[in-house]
Each structure stands twice: as C-alpha cells, then as structure tokens.
Amino acid sequence: MRPLPFIIILTVLNHVAFNGSRIAVSLFAIHQGSSPLTVGILIALYALLPALLSVTAGRWIDRIGVSRPMLLGSIGVSVGTLAPFLLPHPVALYFTAVVVGMSFMLINVAAYHAVGGMSVPEDRTVNFSYLALGFSTSAFVAPMLTGVCIDTLGYRSTFLVLALFTVLPIVALAGKLLPAGHPHDPHDASPRGPVFDLLKDPELRRLFVAMAILTVAWDVYNFAIPVYGTSIGLSASQIGIVMGAFAAATFTVRLAMPFIVQRMQPWPMLAASLLMSGLAYVVLPFTHSVGVLMAIAFLLGLGLGAPQPMVLSLLHQAAPVGRAGEALGLRTTLINTSQTVMPLIFGAVGATLGITPLFWGMAAALLGGSAFAGRKRELPDGD
To answer: 309, 254 in Cβ contact below 8 A?
Structure first.
C-alpha cells in the first residue's frame, strides 16, 4: 500500500479510539454524578501533556522520522482506553485523559509531518484534505459508535471496543510496514534557535492564531454538547447522532476541498468559516430538539472543518527548512495550552452560569476572529 493511504488508515483507527474515549469519559463522569467543572478538568487533562511536550515531540520526529513515534502513540492510546475497562473507577478516567491525550499527540504530529513531507507543494493542500477526510470519518464514527455502545453494552465494555481500534495500527507499525520517513539532515536545516522565534514570522504568527481559535471552538463543542444534551434530556445515542452530524459536515466540506482551493484564497475562506461558526454558536442554546441540533451541528461542522487543510499546508510551506515538525509541535502546544485552560474556565462557568454563556463566549471569539481574518486578507503578507 502507498504511504499516504496507509498513514491515513492508521491515524483514523487511532482517532476513533481517541475521540470515542473523550466522549465516553465525559458521559461516564456525568453518569457518576460529576459536575461540569469535573468534566472540564477531565477534558483539559487530554491537552495538558501535549501542551508541555509537543515541541519536543516535533523536534524528535524531525530527527528520527514518523514510524517509531506513531507506534509509541498507538500503544499509549490502547493502554489508556483499556484503563476504565480494567478499573471502572473515577481515577481511571483521569489516567485515560492524560495517557490518551499525550499518545495521540505523537500520532497527530507525526501524521501531519509525514503527509506534508511526502507532498509536493502543489498537492500538499489536497493531501492534507485527504488526511482531514480521514479525521472526519473517524469523528463521524466515534460519537455514534460510543453512544450506541454505552446504551447497549454499558460504559465499561465501550472502552474495550474503543481499544480494539488500536490493534491494527500497533501490529502494522511493529511490523515496520510504514517507512520511518526521511529525517532532515541537520546540516541542511535552518539554524535552530528558541522555538518561539518561529512566531517572529508574520505569516506563521497569523496561522497560529487562526488555528488556535478554530481548535478551541472545536474543543468547546466536544465539551459542551454532551453536557448540554444531557441537560435537555437527550440519550447517549441522541448525543452521538448530533455529534455525528457535525462530523458528517466536516467530511462533506473536506471532500469538496480540491474544488474549493481552486476558487478561494486562504484568508477569505477563513473569514467566512469563522463567521459561519460564530453564528452557529449564537443560536445553539435556543435549540432543544434533536433535528434542529443536528442542523446547527452540521452548519458548525462546515465552518470549522473547511479551513484546516489549507491552513496546515500554509504552515508546512512557511516553516523553516528542517523545522516543520517543530512548527507542527508548536501549533499543538499553543492549541493544547488553550485546550488545557479553557475547559477549566468553561467548566467553572458552566457550573455557575450554565452552558449558554459558553456558547456565546465562543461565538464572540469566532466573530472577532472572522473580523481579524477579513482585515488581514487586505494586508500584504509581510505586514
């Protein structure tokens, strides 16, 4: 099998386990009587170690290639998702959040690095869209599978089902079916100063800001929908269906990405996507039926799913030679720092004021980001 489809398949299988575990951990914690603040802490733990170690991981991947990091990550996702099955106790949920979050970060950075490195510039956006399609597929499967398994098998067995998705990646990577890749020769790489020197580049700085807003908006959705759905009386299966509509939208828009990239420039597309997402967040708290929630989730999925492949391509293109993995690691660090802090804030706000302020706060950030992106498209790249 060619490397690109192989990488996508391995990443998708791990992402089903990762994404399903986040939903199962949230719903299991709620089932055990945990407050929104506790759920926020659990979701934040998924991002804690990635926030601290992603740059180091990116530099490691720059040096040794992608195969070993992906194997280590797959083993970690497997161990983390098995923990609540072996020990159905609240402590296991914290272990799962930390281990699965850290392990999938390795897979994520390695996969993006591999796809960017194997692509010629004119094909890079389309190849990133194929990987994003894989993520959309797993994001569609994971919530519905998790919800149905919880309702039919119970929480403990659900974690076992999710862990099974890591078996094929572990076997394939342990069997060295994926080439290690071609690490950059240190003599060819750009001088490696402090990592935050990357932020001195205006284009990289804009991209990091844009990706942070998009990813926080995505994470707020993953955190708040289970809590909001439970508060209006939806079952786990119904919550999974709503989240599946979001994933279906991201799949649809990424399937159309080869058509879109020929007709839209990156920053105008980003401004429109942020605007659409912000409006979806504004109306979310007014909906109480599964059908309407699915429609809004689909709209939100279109808005948040469209920009990622093009922005990632620009990031890989703008990164200095030999520092693409480091740039991807910095992206993950910045995003996961937000993901660590924001769920704690959102959990505290949700516990005191309810879920509506969370949706509207995110709407304000997205609409502000849309105005920022719309203004930036009028400026020269070096501004």
So the answer is: yes
Radius of gyration of the chain (CA): 20
> Residue 207 is encoded by which pair of tokens?
């991209």
As a whole-number percent, the residues of the chain with pLDDT over 70 amount to 92
> pLDDT above 90 covers what percent of the chain?
33
SS (H, E, C) 137-152: HHHHHHHHHHHHHHHH
Distance CA 95, CA 178 (A): 29
Instruction: Read off φ and ψ for residue 374, nearest 5 degrees.
Output: -65, -35
Is residue 277 within 8 A of residue 366, CB to CB? The reply is yes
Contact 44, 341 (CB under 8 A): yes
Q: What tokens does 240 get?
A: 């999974």
Contact 42, 25 (CB under 8 A): yes
Domains of the chain plus CATH, in order, are 3-176+188-376 (1.20.1250.20)
Nearest Cα to 57, choosing from 76, 70, 44? 70
d(CA 63, CA 159): 34
146-183 tens-digit pLDDT:
999 999 999 999 999 999 999 999 999 998 876 655 55
